[in-house]
């Protein structure tokens, strides 16, 4: 079997979430890979100095440019030069431009088998829909968010701008939606195998397409690599329960219900800080930081800088509980289609997981199958569980056999089996 | 004897039941509890989860697996098995606020009132709203005689399943037997036991959490239309109960029961006069029901006339229900607003 060409904008040492997912899959696979990537553009990078141990079966090819569009062109040019060397190409999104390369390769060499891996939906992404709320920057409603002088409130100019925003920008965003839908359709129709990280994501993305396309779909969950965790990790030993959140938070994926629950508990128990320590590693929306200050939770809740991937695994190992927070996107969809890659690392750490998520969907199903804690975004429910954990030693025993399903070597094995079956590759090859 | 029986009806709620049981099965009070989980022919893993709790606390948690018979059948079953002095229902997709619940159980140990009332909250998860429903004018710990207390204290509210904890004997004496395979049996639960309640006490505790996870769960108009026969069955049964069996009760109790029936009657008229898109059927059903109500209880018939929707539809002989009841409801609502504003203006000028 020839080497597989992997087109991935992110790959270690640029340790974005997508890069790490790709790394864990390839590094635990027995196939031979050439990864076309880059190591200059550090956007979306977590700890780009982390050089993770890599097997000899992976060879990285780095683009010269640090710009995405140039990288795309370089990738296509690379394939043109080496078309005979590859029969299988795998493209990874984020970003979706990788799939543009896949589509171009398919045109150059139609016999090539194209595997398109989708981290998130390209079109109609519910999270993006939540982000792009129908909120004009010129709206009079902004007076609830920032001070507005009377002159601005009654300004005809502002109102005209507001009307223009609604007439033009919305139309522009519609164009983006059309383009994204077209791209997604192109990728899914052109590829020979489509990888999704959960059944919910696959159902959501494939819903609108012909049934024959659905046969291309394979669910390949995110994974953890046991070899990357520290062997020995001392616990804090201070008698407190340590809860840790690692990763990105924003206005939508907000810890606010959790913080409100802690605030409610702290009003009942003035010595809460002696029992509980919560640490958030990574970015947090400024208003949530203000909430922590305003409600004097800083003795209990600490916001720390992002750490490298390997450090994050160490932090996970030391914690008593790992906090997982998904965005509440009920306004857009009632089923959560997202499986955060970090959750797989949480599973690998083997610690208790406190999952705040929508009760239907990917994360909830994974956590339930694992026998981990699934809590809705209700402040009251979170408070109930915090109270049980702190005062009654509440814990759940995870199912080992389910944990193993997310081990990188197991996931890689599923991937290899699928590739062999679908592309009729014999062992001898 | 245990202090409190908590009946947990289960039907395909494996996603929620752990939250429900975790909120009540707490070490501090578990010995005082008799938790009965009745699986109503549940097909998913909910019963298996409940059995984990049964294994852990065999003296306090029991599971019962029975054929599907609806929400009412689970309550009938649970009431028959109850070992607690008090009895209450906790639906398996809802939960209790544990802190207040522990306080509730501690206070309940020294209680003797027939009915214990506490507050509850609706948790709208999709919008992250939490609506607190509180009996504001009732005083914490005060015992009220049902035949003499001032109904104004309830501010038009009444005691619902989520707020009520009855003495088990009271429920049994009342002959409560809910309809099986029928929706809206909570009406029966809210009405029938009251006939035997002599006194009640209010605890200013915020216990029950009514979970509304999806937008369509609260906007259940379509469910009302789909299950209108169930609503009619329970409605007629409760009106029959009121007219036939409640006439010897005190005036206060009758007035209280009328309040509940009025609310549900309003819902009933609204189903046909505004929700049902099948106008012919709606017309046929509501005219028949209206005539039945007149025959069965002229008092209730005339009382319900105070509601604009009912009054104007009666005046027009339900003719608009045949055409577009929903639109007519909007017209009535708008008319009410205009006439209200005109009245205010008139008073201002006087």
Q: Which tags fit this structure?
A:
heterodimer; A: 429 residues; alpha/beta; 16 helices; globular; B: 14 helices
Biggest β-sheet strands, sense, barrel of chain B? 10 strands, mixed
Oligomer category? heterodimer
Which regions of chain A contain 5 or more consecutive residues with pLDDT less than 50? none
- Helix content class of chain B: 40-55%
Treating each run of at least 4 consecutive H or I residues as one helix, how many helices of chain A? 16
Terminal residue distance of chain A: 5 Å
Strand order of the largest sheet of chain A: 3-2-1-4-5-6-7
The Rg value of chain B, from CA coordinates, equals 22 Å
Please state roughly what percent of the residues of chain A sit in beta strands, choosing from under 5%, 5-15%, 15-25%, 25-35%, 35-45% or over 45%.
Answer: 5-15%
The secondary-structure element order of chain A is: EHEEHEHEHHHEHHEEHEHEHEHEHEHHH
Global structural class of chain B: alpha/beta
Question: Could you characterize the architecture of this molecule?
Answer:
The complex is a heterodimer of chains A (429) and B (350). Chain A is an alpha/beta fold. Helices cover 42% and strands 14% of the residues of chain A. Chain A has helices at residues 17-27, 68-82, 97-108, 126-131, 150-153, 156-190, 199-206, 211-214, 256-268, 286-294, 309-318, 341-349, 362-370, 379-392, 400-404, 408-422; strands at residues 4-7, 33-37, 58-62, 88-93, 113-118, 193-196, 217-219, 241-246, 276-281, 301-304, 321-325, 352-356, 373-375. A seven-stranded parallel β-sheet of chain A has the order 3-2-1-4-5-6-7, with helices on both faces. A six-stranded parallel β-sheet of chain A has the order 10-9-8-11-12-13, sandwiched between helices. Chain A starts with a strand and ends in a 7-residue tail after the last helix. The mean pLDDT of chain A is 90. Chain B has 350 residues and is an alpha/beta fold. In chain B, 48% of the residues lie in helices and 19% in strands. Chain B has helices at 17-24, 46-56, 71-81, 98-108, 168-173, 186-191, 215-218, 221-226, 228-245, 251-275, 279-296, 298-303, 308-315, 319-349; strands spanning 2-10, 33-40, 61-66, 84-89, 95-96, 115-124, 129-133, 143-145, 164-167, 199-212. In chain B, strands 1, 2, 3, 4, 5, 6, 7, 8, 9 and 10 form a ten-stranded mixed β-sheet that branches. In chain B, helix 1 links the parallel strand 1 (2-10) and strand 2 (33-40). Chain B is globular and about 65 Å long. The N and C termini of chain B lie far apart (66 Å). Chain A binds chain B through residues 257, 268, 328, 330-331, 334, 358-360, 364, 368, 374-381, 383-385, 387-388, 392, 394, and chain B through 14-16, 18-19, 22-23, 26-28, 95, 97-99, 121, 123, 125-128, 130, 209, 211, 213-215.
